[in-house]
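Figure-free illustration: sequence to structure, shown twice.
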Amino acid sequence: MRRERMRAALQRHLPIFGHVRGYDTHTFLCDLIAGVTVGLTVMPQALAYATLAGVEPQFGLYSAFAGCFVYVVFGSCKDITIGPTALMSLMTYQQVVNRNSDYAILLCFISGIMQLLMAVLNLGLLVDFISIPVTVGFTSATSMIIISSQLKYILGLKYKSNGFFDTLYQAYANIDKSRYADFQMALVCIVLLLGLRKIKDIKLKRKPLEKTIWVISTSRNALVVVCSSLLAYYYETTTGAVPFLLTGKVKPGMPNFGPPPFSTTYNNRTVELSEMLADLGGSVVMVPIIAVLGNVAIAKAFANNKSVDATQELIALSFCNVIGSFFSSIPITGSFSRSAVNHASGVKTTVGGIFTGILVLLALSFVTPAFRYIPKASLGAVIICAVIFMIEYEVVRPMWKSNRKDLIPMSVTFILCLSIGVELGIVIGVFINIILLLYPSARPQVTVEKLTTPNGVECLLITPSNSLYFPAVEFIKSYVDNAGLNSVHLPVVIDCRFILAADFTAARGVSAMIRDFAGRKQPLYFLNPSEKVKNVFKGADIAFNSLKSVQELEDFIVDSEESALLKQLNSTYREFEQV
């Protein structure tokens, strides 16, 4: 039994042992095809995302291979591919702008450490506080920010900007300097990418032809980038001049292996670790959380109704970032688009990531000289076509029909992410969402009705719709007091069927309410409170009338009224005797 438990624990934390059990030739071929397909997809995206992150293109390739190898060992979902993404690149850019690439590498390392700490402390539940409306507002806003950031490459412009609205203004102010060739190149690339994306849905009777079309559609990013690069190469060899802005020289070879930079030099001065962390600010918390949110969401999407071990995904992602930082990686996470390609390619295990990583390493070793011919306009088109479908406008209508309050955190997150930054935007969005979540606890709905029992006993029935916690106690107390004063001739009954829990503050408030009712000699009863609520009241030394059913309530009220009547008659008799 001990051996079995150790084996189960080993497979849980090192899923590779479960993946390779029974590994055969068929599984190997499926993983090989899927890994190579994903590799052809990730290379142009990696170059584009490095540009988006504000670092040199080779950093995108550095970020594309380490995570592939690490996730093979620690990852639990066969479909996920780890590497640079548009969202992580955007959040990295906000920390790298006007600084250097050392900040991006350090942010990758810190993100991994934070994710590992979250896994050890079992803090994956923090992701649960980011609701779908907040996520929709966040992803839609970041998609628009990413699209706006590519305007200068599509138009062939050169300018610096800070923030979404400033980017739009700079593009408008410099539009007279646009280069027609870049715009034409970007427009053609976007049309081709969207068209090739759509043709995979065509159903044909001839399966080999349908499979060929699917392969072409899946490899569209690589095809478009290769064709545009060949065109740039043709112009240079025939005319000696290229009409497009090019990526430029990409540093060949493997990155230097070593620890991430804990100090850096820029603006002719040395910046120590403490100052670098201060410059990174809240991103050291938000970047790892957003990375985990995306990774777990992808794992759930491809889990086929199986449970997802969020803690194990945290561990895998943390090691991907920590180890990746030793290879000069920027922050990475799971890519939904590449994971979808991986799944559609028929991947069987996470071993497919090995072939993706090998392909990227081969590109770094032998193909980097050709990367300098890639037009920036084509990379901009790749990014735009990757993120444009992340603008989730279609959820607004069902959200309006189901629960309109959800539009508040979504709209606030969307607007603030565009105006003040994605980190603050999502934090404020989550805060507002929590307030809306807690509001029913502070102001629960309370219904008041006159109840007549089967035997004709009348009482006032008050039903709170939520548990009794300290934010709501004064509200419910005043509500019950006012209802009792308006019907002072009737006994008041609090229906406790929805009150599943209470706290000490609420118990003290109930104690004060019981004294108020006793002071005006108006009966107050609690109908069917749970054992948990009764224990809280008893622990606060509250004497209260607890009844289990309407029949018991009726008998208790009748007995109380008869007792009160008898006491009144005895009192009257004693007064008569004295007279």
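We now fold a second protein in the same way, so the two outputs can be compared directly.
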Amino acid sequence: MDFRNIVIVGLLACLVWFGSAIIRLEQFHYAAMLEACPLMQNELDRVKWITCLERKKDLRASPLYDLAYGLDIL
């Protein structure tokens, strides 16, 4: 395998990694926007609130929709 193919594979891996991060952040953003978890008052409850938002993953149709929305395509 020559150097150019190695660079292409590395860049594709970075794209997949960045795409998965965008999907995860958009799912968190959408759950917060919908107020899927009740708001907490003190700092200890805030950790529970963030954990609850991170677990809300199936609020939209698919991860591809989250990716398109996160990239402002939709």
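Summary for the second example: The chain has a mean pLDDT of 88.
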